[in-house]
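Hey L., structure's done. Input below.
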Amino acid sequence: MTGYYPFHTGLQDGVIFPNQPYGLPLNLTLLPQMLKPLGYSTHIIGKWHLGFCKWDYTPTWRGFDSFYGYYTGSEDYFSHTRAYKGIGLDFRDNTRVVLDKNGTYSSIVFAEQAKKIISSHNQTVPLYLYLPFQSVHAPLEVPQVYEDMYSFIKDKYRRIFSGMVTAMDDAIGNVTQALVDYGMMKDTLLVFTTDNGGPSYLGANNWPLRGAKTTLWEGGTRGTAFVHGSMVQKSGYVNTGLMHAVDWFPTLLTVASGRPPGHRTDSIDGVDQWAMISQGAASHREEFIYNIDRIKNNSAIRSGDYKLIMGNPGYYSGWYPPPKLDAVQVKETMYTADIRLFNLKEDPTEHNELSSKFPDIVKKLQAKLLNYKKGEKAPLNKPGDPRANPKYFGGAWTPGWC
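Output:
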């Protein structure tokens, strides 16, 4: 959303809990704020989770023409409530609390809203629709009809998770069909991407990669994506070029035909990868930072083929076969050292630790990390504030308490 690494924004340590009085810094320019001067109509449907303790942090104050979704994370898919040091409804139509969707699964609700925006869109104006589905984040919930599709899966978490994926697939199919029905598909670029690896302990699976969500291992950080549109010149292939999530910011601006007057993007961490995506050209990136977190005292860098991890990579550091492969015996290798080096080209599953074999490479990557650490912003994490409790706002999580 900003083109900056989290350690450059102060959001490098965990997530913003509902009662924490901070958000994505207001001095940062978001992608929709860059697109508005280019004439775009901008809309968000789904998850925000970038802070809401005051209205200035919320989507329609940060470049979006409309917002239909929720401010926090991990809310109930049917009741749209979030329990955390208090329980409250978390569902908004712009600033209005949505009261009539109790019992309706979020993927269905969000797809219907997307169809409304598409059907009513003035096609003489370009459209940016950001649709961060709640799926397939915890809690694991899905309509019974979708879970029943996978009754042959004995692992309960995996069975529900699989149903959640299919429910999301159906929702996406309904959105893409709306683009076709209203004659917009031929001029639309579709980007579908994950934001992190899955929680292996809650039905997801990153096999054969190591680790899970919230770790610095490839299983927790390496994501997949696909891009579809008539403007993609080379299609039907898998691109494995090096790319970081921050690269979407300048890449999508290039697709949108330029930079707004008075705005600069040369200081951000993201790089334009449109040539790589659309033409199969080489990546414009040779290295990136996974994260730098002074609270957890860990960090990681990828430079060329090598990855260096400093400190504890996080919980769930093993290799977790999917349930259907539960007969496979996997021995997890643990290290007591604080330094781990891997060659990801030769060893993408991070089995072979190389720090003792290549001390010069370790020293080189440590120096790079140290240089990046000089630009780390202090984490913005703050203690929870009891004034956030929904009981003070008619039973809904609401801005206005910080």
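Residues 156-181 form the longest helix (26 residues). The radius of gyration is 22 Å.

-- N.
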